[in-house]
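User: Hey, quick favor. My workstation is busy. Could you predict this chain's structure for me?
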Amino acid sequence: MPNLYGNIVDNIASGIVGGAGIVPGASYSSDCVIYEPGARHTFGEAAGKNIANPTAMLLCAVRMLRHVNLHYYADLIHKAIEIVLGSGKVRTRDLGGYASSSDFTRAIIANINI
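Assistant: No problem, here it is.
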C-alpha cells in the first residue's frame, strides 16, 4: 500500500496492542534492512526525558540479531522482555506505570538468563 496508508495502519495497529513504544518495524530493500519502531509517531516529546518505552527499540535489536543469525542472543533478550512485560511489575507510563526508560531497561537486563 502507499506510504501514507501504511503509516495510518501502522499507527492504528500500534495503538491496539499497547502503543508506539511496543511495536518493532523494519524497512527492507534489495540491498539493506533498517530496523526501527513500527509506528511513525513514537512519542518524540519524550526524547532526553527518560520516560519513553524502550520495548520497540529492544525488539528491533532482537530482529536485527536474528537477521545476522545470532538467534541465541535474540532469544535471551526476547524472553527477558516477555518476562518483564508479563509480570507487569515494571511498566513505563504508556503502559500505566511509573517506571523510567532506565528502570525498564534495567529490569530487562536483570531477566536475561545466560
